[in-house]
Structure formats: structure tokens, C-alpha cells
Amino acid sequence: MLWLIFLILAGICIRLGIYQFHMPVCLHGECRGLGIGVEELNQLKEQKEQGYGGILDLAGWRVRERELVMAEDTGRSTQTQIMEVYGNMELIFPTKILSGICGTAGQKDGCVLTKDLAWKLFGSVAVTGEKVWIWDEEEKTREKCYLTVAGVIDREGECLMIPTEKGELEAVVVCFSERFQAKEKFEEILEGN
Q1: pLDDT at 185 (0 to 100)
Q2: Three-class SS string for the chain?
Q3: Domain containing 150: what range?
């Protein structure tokens, strides 16, 4: 009888272990200085769309120096951190969305704000559709006239996320369909395929 119980428990443990290998996993890594940019992530995105590599989703980003951001309607401004993002913005800060969407798919002039930045600029988090602009200190001009707020996320700190379509990235996150060999695949990506 004890052997039967032992075999049943062993079978359950083995099944759970195998099940764990087939669960999706997202891996984050720094890639500053490794030459990984939007072009490389585009290649991975193409592999994803063709069903290769077990990639479910991906994103990459770089952080710029703090820059002056101003709300068009309120005239309020603040120095804030700007993140240039390629891919799914939700992977960078997996958090609750307070208004709108966490992403700017199809919007080159869209942005996502953290709740602290939304409060500082607008006094509210319900600011989807509002306009902001970034001051380019070197050019002494507005870098991007009137970015449209696509959403606000429940994240501490003042940060504005905008999409990017070119350049090197500082960090990446790749979500794989299963844990099995995900770490090895991710290391290959960081090493340059």
C-alpha cells in the first residue's frame, strides 16, 4: 500500500515537473554595449511570426537623460525620464493600467505616462488623448510636437515611454512559450545569435 502511494506521489511530482518545463517564461537582460538594437529585435519578431524559437513576445528599451516634458493644456512641465521602447511596452513594466492602454502600437506620436508624471502634469490619471511635448535642449526646440497620451500605468516615479524604430538598446525582455531551454536561447540572443 505504501508503495502504491509512493508511486502515485512520484507520478504527480514528475508530471508537475514536466508541466513546469512547458510553462511560458519571460527573461530580462541588460544588453548595453552588446550591439543589440531594434534591427536585431525585428529579426526575432520575424522568427516569432514564423513560429521559430518559441518566442511569444519581446521588447527592448533605452533610457535617455531627464528632459523637460510639458502638458499642452495645463502648461505644467517637469524634468522627467524618457524611455524609448521597441515592442510590447507592457513587458517592461507589467503593472495595472490606470487609463487607456499600455502601448502605442501603430502610433508614432503616442506615449505612455506613469501615474506620478500624469498627476504632476495634469492633476489626474484620466488623461488619455491629452497632448504633451518634449523640449530638445540641444536644438532648443520641441523634439516631438504633441505626443498623444495613449495610457497611464500604475508605476511610481516620473517616466514617459515613447516608441522607437531604430538604434541600440540597453535592455531586452523576451517571452518564450516554454521554460525548457529558454535561458540558453536568451543567452544566444544576448551573444548575437
Answers
A1: 82
A2: CHHHHHHHHHHHHHHHHHHHHCCCEEEEEECCCCCCEHHHHHHHHHHHHHCCCCEEEEEEEEEEEEEEEEECCCCCEEEEEEEEEEECHHHCCCCCEEEECCCCCCCCCEEEEEHHHHHHHHCCCCCCCCEEEEEECCCCEEEEEEEEEEEEECCCCCEEEEECCCCECCEEEEEECCCCCHHHHHHHHHHCC
A3: 25-191
All three cell numbers of 188, joined, read 544566444
Q: Express each pLDDT in 46-70 by its tens digit.
A: 777 776 677 888 889 999 888 899 9
CB 79 within 8 A of CB 66: yes
Q: Is 20 domain-assigned?
A: no
Tell me, yes or no, whether 6 lies in a domain: no
Render pLDDT for 143-178 as a digit per residue (tens, 0 to 9).
Answer: 556 789 999 999 889 999 998 888 999 999 888 888
